From TrEMBL:
Keywords: Membrane, Transmembrane, Transmembrane helix. InterPro entries: DUF7285. This is Uncharacterized protein. It comes from the Archaea. It comes from Natronobacterium haloterrestre (Halobiforma haloterrestris). The chain crosses the membrane at residues 16-36.
Length: 158
């Protein structure tokens, strides 16, 4: 057997069959990626209030502590950025501590759906279907006096 006849007997794929195989694999990978994007994009368990509480804490904390020292009135109202709040929702933010066994509101503010700040006492109570998120936070009441507190964010449609 000559060398040239051995080359002719080797298995080869037709160019058209190779192109069809590559196109099929590319199409399959594309469809699978599209399917995963659709499935994973819809399975989030983050609620507007859970997203808002993280963003609000980033706005109102300084070095991981909420400072409530005298002269710092309206810290929440002045520090929370509008883009930190869920769009088209009313949001109430409050920071509380426990002092001598009693709950004490350190600061709070209510943001209307359009981003304007409202007086919580004048607006009334939120509806029953309000989404609520809370998290423990450190609160500095006086220089060097840091206590445990709670950040509470309530979100509802107006």
């Amino acid at each position: 057997m000559s060398r040239s006849s051995a080359r002719r007997d080797r298995g080869q794929t037709e160019p058209l069959a190779a192109l069809v195989a590559v196109a099929t694999i590319g199409l399959a990978v594309g469809l699978y990626g599209g399917y995963l994007t659709g499935v994973l994009g819809e399975t989030t368990d983050r609620t507007p209030e859970s997203v808002a509480i993280d963003r609000v804490w980033d706005d109102v904390s300084e070095n991981g502590v909420f400072t409530a020292i005298d002269g710092n009135d309206g810290a929440i109202r002045n520090r929370v950025r509008i883009d930190s709040l869920p769009e088209g929702k009313t949001v109430h933010v409050a920071i509380t501590t426990v002092d001598d066994g009693e709950k004490r509101v350190i600061d709070h503010a209510r943001f209307h759906a359009d981003g304007t700040v409202r007086d919580p006492a004048r607006v009334g109570d939120p509806p029953a279907d309000t989404g609520v998120a809370t998290r423990p936070v450190p609160v500095e009441l006086e220089p060097g006096d840091v206590r445990g507190g709670t950040l509470r964010v309530e979100v509802w449609s107006q």
